[in-house]
Amino acid sequence: MSNDVTTIGKRSSTSSNQNVSRWFKKNNHGNRLLTLVLFLPPALLLFTIFVILPIGEAGYYSLFRWNGYGEPSQWVEFSNYVRLFKHGAFDTAVWNTFKIILISLVIQLPLALIIALSIYKKSWANSLFRLIFFLPYILAEVAAGLIWRFVFDGDYGVMAKFTEALNTDTWYILADKNWAFVAILVVLVWKYFGFHMMIYIAALQGVPKDLIEASKLDGASRFQAIWYVKIPLIMSGITISIFFSILGALQTFDLIMPLTGGGPSNSTHTLVSYLYTFGITRMNVGFGSAVGVVLFICCVIFAFTYQSTIMKDKK
Amino acid sequence: MLAMRRISWGKYIFLILVAGFVLVPMFATVLGGFKSLGELRTNPFGLPDVWEFEYYAQVFADGSIWLLMKNSLIIAFFSVLLTIIIGTMTAFTFSHIKFAGYKYIYNYFLIGMMFPAAAAILPLFLKIRDLGLLDSLSGVVIPQVAFGLGFSILLFRTFFEQLPAELFDAARVDGCSYIKFYWHVILPLSTPILATVGVFVLVASWNNYLLPLLVLNTEQQYPWTLGIMQYRGEYGIEWNRILAYVTVTISPAIIFFLFAQKYIVEGLTGGAVKG
């Protein structure tokens, strides 16, 4: 802002100089402009440098083969993308990410909703249950992952008890290509259902009590009161929680690393753990950026369509 | 009446089963640190027959755990502080200064909220490296603050705009400058939203794994999330040691949660819903 003022000042004649100073005086009451010049740039700079620019750079770098040192010079057009889409492990990662979304929508959110409906009223026991169910959400993913790595260990934990009971060989589920990702899905539900439950509880507590009373007086059954009164009234909470669960699913990473690290034979990668393994650890800046661009496009397309269609109706 | 009672029994059985699903792995973790490997193998979930204290003792005696916690705390503290200072300043320009074209800049920040942090992680890494921030705590703090801005500006602006407009008019008539108004009126009135955003940033920073993993190379700089993975790497399948270590490292978060439950739930879900 101050820059504008000086450049305009230099170029113009004395009369417009006066105009500028008049404009400045008029707008700077209570140091309004000064405050602006002081308050806005820090966020603008930080945000542009660390959030916006890297996205553009990812698009640019994805067209090169580059190890991150010197200037990117080996222009390879779209071959990073071609390699990506031909890579079987990437297919698996996309498919796994899709499975997370599916499980969230089909198991996690309904579970959260059922629990929220049964404990949203204020009571001592309900508060205790809420506390318990929310607990996994505040744990760091790496810690939660290690805890479950123990639980799933074939020699210890629940899997050992399981195979012992069936009298079969020890089963290392996290090393089993066909089942490892199922185990990860269990941990995901365990970790995040409490978060969605809390969103629903907050929404349910906002439902006016007289509406539910009225529906009871009209002879609605418990189920009808839930289906026709409570759920429609908390729809905005449900829309938000779907939004978060899908955006979260697209970015799952921290839990994968302690549980399987993407193995066995790349069968449990998600988009981000794939990016980490094939882009970052090998410093394939071009290839990794291409994965990032795909991830970015998925998130943005989803976010924009969801917000402009479903969330718009609800607000 | 009988049907009602049956439903409510069914409900409690269901809730207790889910609570078991949530809690059993956690109790097994805490208790596992007290068991010998042999006992852990035969009795992974129950109370230990013989309480062994050496594994926990070793975790504390190691000393590195305090350094890890300290690093995590420093990173979290500065992330919260900077997000709150910069976020409120920016939101204030949108809510009270309302300069020409502010809506475009506001939307610019909001759009960034949808950007997945991981998508541009490689260019971000190169940027941190080129700015000479690699292997320093500020290399973790600054990007974390940048990524928290969109969300916090949204919450702050909404809150500031809901403060009574009369306050601002009266202050301006009395000749109070914008900066003084921000400092003496807006900030003191905004403690609830400061707590919400603060808790959100605190928990996200405390639990962050990917960014420190990229930025930090020397162990002296590691936060606890990197330390725990390294410990696991060192001790492989000595699960009793690892479980003791996990218990010790997650307990600050759990204790904090039990004491500040209300703020945390509000910060993590309320913030999300308002956003």
UniProtKB/TrEMBL annotation, chain A:
Entry's Gene Ontology BP terms: transmembrane transport
Cell compartments where the protein resides: Cell membrane
Chain ranges of the ABC transmembrane type-1 domain: 94-306
Keyword Transmembrane annotated: yes
Bilayer topology annotation: Multi-pass membrane protein
Family annotation (Pfam families): BPD_transp_1
Gene Ontology cellular-component annotations: plasma membrane
Transmembrane segments: 33-56, 100-120, 132-151, 179-204, 225-250, 285-306
Keyword Membrane recorded: yes
UniProt keyword annotations, A-Z: Cell membrane, Membrane, Transmembrane, Transmembrane helix, Transport
Protein family according to the UniProt entry: Belongs to the binding-protein-dependent transport system permease family.
Protein name: Binding-protein-dependent transport systems inner membrane component
The species this protein was found in: Marinomonas sp. (strain MWYL1)
